């Protein structure tokens, strides 16, 4: 028979006590006792102790109803019935004997106990089940059996079952252990965090406390005192005395009682106790090697540790990003969010590809790989994120110039970066300014292409077209060659670098220089709206062209076809030939793209056309002259020409030379500015080629039983995937699991921060007061529109009807067709040069960005007015 009981302290070593036997809570207690931390003594009734009870329950009708439940109502009813059956169970003679012998170790006649459930799935690094399982306090020896049954029954609670289903646990095979522990008659108790749960700072411990037992703090039924401690300096940073409206105390003969306490204004902890707890919290964190939260108590001045569990909801940083406590800190901006609008981590393989590409690029351009060490790098790529090293950027260019750059990328991120002390975060790294001389050779070549673009823009434009065509041909050639995977990536990277640096980047860079020169020439005049109009209807933008192509293709279908009908008939190739021809051509040009396309694991339009089909159905349903993107584009071109003429008329009095220079610059801008998104288009083209080869390898590895399925290759790095076919000793499943530790932790975070420092502190702007019914963001596309809010977290989440105000965190090319029906756009992330702003301007839609928590501020149907000129969003009262 399996061991049915463990004592702590006992003769157990922590590693010998399996979590499957004692549960997460008990395993933690046993470990803390072995570490000689001040844990009250007790014992654990293991999962095998309750095998007979589960066997009895599974023979009943309630269990069958539980397995067959198809709705929340049915599930709750079945769970309640199962809990009633569990509480009616009886201990066997053997079970009673085990408990009686264990209780003999506690000799005090009126000893009281805390009885706690301990699940094998609870208090683990990725799951807490907080509040789901049962704890019974102040139990005397006569009440032990009933308390055990109550704790056991809690594993059948609907809350626990739902949590298991949501987090991928097998809810059909419940297991439970029960901890019986000496009850501490505490004078004050509470909870402690080894990091600040609000700011995520790793250097701060947060302690909450109340009089009596800690249940009022854990359950949130009283406002506790809160203390923040600097763990490095061991100093108290902040004290907040809570109301402590009520407290819970042990009754001498068992049970608890709740009553109001008159000491509301008095601190429940002394300074010495606060620092003593901070040291204990640090000790627990150090022992576990990860952020922890604990439950603690003081009784008669003696401190006790009641529980410790990993903190599951914090923002982790890779080890190489974390600086030593007390040393110079670094500041990071999450480029994955503020540039690409991707809040969820990229896949391991996708990150590995981008890291390899960046390494190769810097090696070729700068003469050395500056991505190897974050100390000497402007960017970090790893663990599903891309971070800009703002500290090194401060050192290289200064805070003011960095702010100007980020204002074009994401104004909200720029505001946050502008709120910090440059001196606090500046790296003071002398190597940053000493760029290798190799760069000057690149600059010379690049400069020649810039000169070509400045004085012969049409020639530069033809050069881009030829280079893009040659690039695609070379990618196809390389794809057909039997290159090793990493060699294939390097060859693609070389060709991408040539295409971008020799044609695309000089063209777009020159267009931006031209625009800034135009603004300088027009300085002193009020041309704000006209310059915004100059960004309308620009040719040669691959994202705009994709949207136009999709709309044109939709017009080739009969009206009122549903997405399901289109998908079915498309699969059978049973649609009008003009549409099928357009579809095939679209996939050739844009099949490598799709939502969240920067992540290699994300399906391409070619792989999963469902998003395209849904958008086509919506576009066809709302097809009208007013909705025609081509007409909007043409109108944008006309508005751009009119704006240019208006500026020219007002500059006429400055002389022919000024007007001629302005006109020449405008010709450069008009011809080349649309190429802004071409580098990403080409990058995704390469990424798609690598994705295709990776999936082929994945299918082979899955067929050989080394992976669960082909898509698991996205949990491996390029190097691991290349080595896998020939190295049969590699445990690919274990490697994939190890690779995803931080990515899994990041996936638990509801909203990742845009700016964070190397000690985990999230940098946020102080809350800004707004007028009643009004929110102000950053205007990026002018105009005023009214309409009902429609919040979307993905482009295919639900239909966007004509006139809806699209609200999203950010958009990428996969969202483009939705802009046709939108009346206005509100984004959480994005600046003048971000995808959403670009497309909004093309379609003439008011667009406001930089709205914190935009997707949670309004509900669908809320009527608003969006002013894209001032950045104001005003709530409109609807009359009944």
Key terms:
880 residues; alpha+beta; eight-stranded mixed beta sheet; six-stranded antiparallel beta sheet; 44% helix; 14% strand; globular
Q: What would your notes on this structure say?
A:
With 880 residues, the protein is α+β, with helices and mostly antiparallel strands. Helices cover 44% and strands 14% of the residues. The strands form five sheets. An eight-stranded mixed sheet has the order 18-25-24-20-21-22-23-19. A six-stranded antiparallel sheet has the order 9-8-7-6-12-13. The protein has a five-stranded antiparallel sheet with strand order 1-2-5-3-4, sandwiched between helices. A hairpin with a 5-residue loop joins β10 and β11. The N and C termini lie far apart (71 Å). Mean pLDDT is 88; it is low at 123-131.
Overall shape: it is globular
Radius of gyration: 32 Å
What's the main sheet like?
8 strands, mixed
Strand content: 5-15%
Indicate the percent of residues in helices.
Answer: 40-55%
Give the overall average pLDDT. 88
Helix-strand category? alpha+beta
In what order do the strands lie side by side in the largest sheet? 18-25-24-20-21-22-23-19
What's the helix count? 31
């Amino acid at each position: 028979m399996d061991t049915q009981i463990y004592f702590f302290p006992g003769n157990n070593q922590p590693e010998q006590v399996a979590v499957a036997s004692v549960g997460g809570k008990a395993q933690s207690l046993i470990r803390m006792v072995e570490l000689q931390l001040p844990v009250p003594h007790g014992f654990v009734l293991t999962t095998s102790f309750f095998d007979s009870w589960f066997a009895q329950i599974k023979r009943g009708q309630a269990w069958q109803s539980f397995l067959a439940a198809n709705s929340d109502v049915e599930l709750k009813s079945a769970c309640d019935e199962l809990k009633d059956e569990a509480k009616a169970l009886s201990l066997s003679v053997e079970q009673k004997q085990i408990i009686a012998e264990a209780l003999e170790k506690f000799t005090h006649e009126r000893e009281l106990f805390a009885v706690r459930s301990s699940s094998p799935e609870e208090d683990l690094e990725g799951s807490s089940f907080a509040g789901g399982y049962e704890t019974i306090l102040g139990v005397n020896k006569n009440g032990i059996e009933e308390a055990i049954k109550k704790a056991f029954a809690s594993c059948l609670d609907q809350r626990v079952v739902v949590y298991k289903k949501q987090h991928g646990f097998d809810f059909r095979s419940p297991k439970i252990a029960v901890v019986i522990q000496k009850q501490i008659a505490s004078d004050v108790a509470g909870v402690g965090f080894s990091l600040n749960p609000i700011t995520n700072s790793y250097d701060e411990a947060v302690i909450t406390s109340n009089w009596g037992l800690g249940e009022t703090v854990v359950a949130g039924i009283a406002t506790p005192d809160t203390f923040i401690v600097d763990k490095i300096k061991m100093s108290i940073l902040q004290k907040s005395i809570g109301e402590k409206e009520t407290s819970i105390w042990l009754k001498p003969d068992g049970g608890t009682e709740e009553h109001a306490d008159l000491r509301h204004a008095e601190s429940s902890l002394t300074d010495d106790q606060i620092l003593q707890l901070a040291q204990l919290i640090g000790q627990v964190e150090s022992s576990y090697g990860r952020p922890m939260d604990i439950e603690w108590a003081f009784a008669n001045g003696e401190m006790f540790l009641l529980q410790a569990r990993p903190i599951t909801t914090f923002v982790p940083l890779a080890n190489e990003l974390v600086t030593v406590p007390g040393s110079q800190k670094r500041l990071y901006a999450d480029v994955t969010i503020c540039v690409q609008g991707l809040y969820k981590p990229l896949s391991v393989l996708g990150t590995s590809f981008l890291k390899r590409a960046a390494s190769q690029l810097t090696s070729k351009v700068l003469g050395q790989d500056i991505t190897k060490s974050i100390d000497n790098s402007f960017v970090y790529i790893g663990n599903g994120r891309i971070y800009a090293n703002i500290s090194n950027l401060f050192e290289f260019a200064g805070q003011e110039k960095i702010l100007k750059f980020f204002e074009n990328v994401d104004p909200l991120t720029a505001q946050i970066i502008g709120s910090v002390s440059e001196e606090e975060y500046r790296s003071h790294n002398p190597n940053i300014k000493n760029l290798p001389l190799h760069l000057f050779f690149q600059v010379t070549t690049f400069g020649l292409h810039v000169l070509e673009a400045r004085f012969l823009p049409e020639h530069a434009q033809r050069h881009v077209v030829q280079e893009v065509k040659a690039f695609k041909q070379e990618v196809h050639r390389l794809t057909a060659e039997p290159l090793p995977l990493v060699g294939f990536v390097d060859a693609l990277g070389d060709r991408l670098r040539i295409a971008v640096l020799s044609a695309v980047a000089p063209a777009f860079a020159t267009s931006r220089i031209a625009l800034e020169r135009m603004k300088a020439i027009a300085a002193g005049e009020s041309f704000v709206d006209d310059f915004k109009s100059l960004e309308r209807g620009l040719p040669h933008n691959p994202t705009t062209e994709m949207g136009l192509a999709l709309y044109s293709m939709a017009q080739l279908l009969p009206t009122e076809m549903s997405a399901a009908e289109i998908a079915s008939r498309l699969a059978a190739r049973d649609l009008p030939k003009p549409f099928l021809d357009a579809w095939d051509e679209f996939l050739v040009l844009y099949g490598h793209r799709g939502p969240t396309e920067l992540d290699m694991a994300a399906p391409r339009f070619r792989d999963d056309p469902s998003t395209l089909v849904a958008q086509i159905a919506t576009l066809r349903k709302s097809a009208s002259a007013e909705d025609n993107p081509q007409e909007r584009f043409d109108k944008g071109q006309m508005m751009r020409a009119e704006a240019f003429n208006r500026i020219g008329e007002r500059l006429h009095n400055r002389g022919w030379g000024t007007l001629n220079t302005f006109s020449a610059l405008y010709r450069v801008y008009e011809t080349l500015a649309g190429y802004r998104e071409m580098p990403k288009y080409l990058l995704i083209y390469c990424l798609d080629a690598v994705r295709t080869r990776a999936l082929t390898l994945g299918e082979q590895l899955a067929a050989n039983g080394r992976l669960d399925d082909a898509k698991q290759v996205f949990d491996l790095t390029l190097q691991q995937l290349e080595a896998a076919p020939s190295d049969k000793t590699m445990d690919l499943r274990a490697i994939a699991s190890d690779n995803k530790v931080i990515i899994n932790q990041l996936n638990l975070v509801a909203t990742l921060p845009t700016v964070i420092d190397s000690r985990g502190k999230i940098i946020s702007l102080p809350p800004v007061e707004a007028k009643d019914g009004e929110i102000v963001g950053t205007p990026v596309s002018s105009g005023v529109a009214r309409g009902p809010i429609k919040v979307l977290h993905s482009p295919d989440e639900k239909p966007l009807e004509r006139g809806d105000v699209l609200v999203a965190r950010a958009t990428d090319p996969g969202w483009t067709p939705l802009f046709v029906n939108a009346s206005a756009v509100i984004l959480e992330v994005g600046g003048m040069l971000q995808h959403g702003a670009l497309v909004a301007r093309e379609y003439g839609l008011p667009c406001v960005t930089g709205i914190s928590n935009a997707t949670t501020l309004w509900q669908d149907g809320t009527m608003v007015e969006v002013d894209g000129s001032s950045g104001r969003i005003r709530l409109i009262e609807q009359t009944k």
